[in-house]
Specification:
By secondary structure, the chain is α/β, with parallel strands linked by helices. It is 44% helix and 15% strand.
Amino acid sequence: MGNVTLKNIAEILGISITTVSKALKDYPDVNKETRDSVRLLAEKLDYKPNPLAINLRNKESKTLGVIIPRVDHNFYSTVVNGIITEAEDRGYLVIILFSGDSSSLEEDQVKLLLEKRVDGVLMSMATETEEIGHIKELIKKKIPLVLFDKTTEEISCSKVRIDDKKASFKAVEYLIETGCKNIVHFRGPLPPQAYTDRFLGYKEALEKHNITYDPSNVYVCDELTFNEGYEFTKKALEEHPETDAIFAMTDLVALGSLAYCQANGIRVPDQISIMGFSNWFMSQNSTPKLSTVHQPIKELGKEAISILIEEIQQRKNEFPVKHFTAQLPTEVIARGTTR
């Protein structure tokens, strides 16, 4: 016999499936003789409960959907590591999907997760996502949703992120306090909100220290790549030869800046300080090592999944769900690329 079911046991013993189920669960309204017969046969046939059927009866799939923008990105791979670790500890399987920063693919992936009847969804929004109807569909269908890293205020759900504006402010203030006055910023595109907040933190730090904000000192990196860091450094130094610091949106862009300076005999940090953002593993292996803003990446994933599972349980138990935003702490890590 293949996979043994409750129906198989019921047919052999000539009793109902309900009685078999109750007997295996030791219900008192099933007499002892019947319970013993059911258990004995179940053991003989090597009966194993079907977890999927159990979960469906409990209106749970015990699976979670996760949508992230990139797979070739240290930040997201580390976040996913934290998500999977925490989810497995809590008895959940995780479906990981990559949007490639495409809003249309992200929309398809949301539909797929709805079809898979996941218990909840974690998402870091695609950079190009502006229309959010597909995300609102999750809310409409009462699927618990937690946004992390790339978020939007247009969606009413819990969010996990860092205070990007404050983190950026601290990074630029550090550059100013170490003697830099002509600071170029390589920012990210619009949306998401995180990129705007880092730009606002840069601008606010300049204003606090009475340094005039010059919009021509800001360059938009659409892809946030090493090559953009390299090429924009070349352009920035041609247009602003007085530049004495570069604050980059990510470590990868900052390392592109460092590479340009080294290839052209520009001394770092004596002539130009360079500050990255995220504290990826690569920032500790450059020469000199990259100064950056540390954000607790793995912890971000663990926090996001914990909040999601808590909201799933609250909905299951018909408790009111109160959304909130968790902001994790950051710190400036000063290394060899700043004074």
